Predict the structure.
Amino acid sequence: MTTLEEDAETKKQIEKEKRVLDETKRLTEVFKKIPLQSKKAVKSLISNAAFMTVTLEDLQDEINKVGTISRYQNGANQWGTKKSPEIEVYNSLIKNHSSIIKQLSDLLPAEVSLKKEDDGFNSFVSLKND
């Protein structure tokens, strides 16, 4: 690898670490109401969820570039297609990510929910019906 390639790779890695840190902060804020006795276990789950979120975003970008199918060659005249390696990794990672988010959500007190903030649409519709 040349120095330019190494510099680009290092820059890319630093950027990913920053994105993971930003996502960790965001998730920590989202799940801040988890009871104190669960906080140590939650820290690891949040860290893993943040890494998975960023990695899933990167995989989505790569899948959009290269597609979902990859071609392969077995021997001189034997060609075929299969799911791309990115799809395989994405499918596995999304299941694990969903599982971690569910675990975190289950630790929230009952009165706290992860529903979207009211965007005013339902209020608007109810006013139109009156």
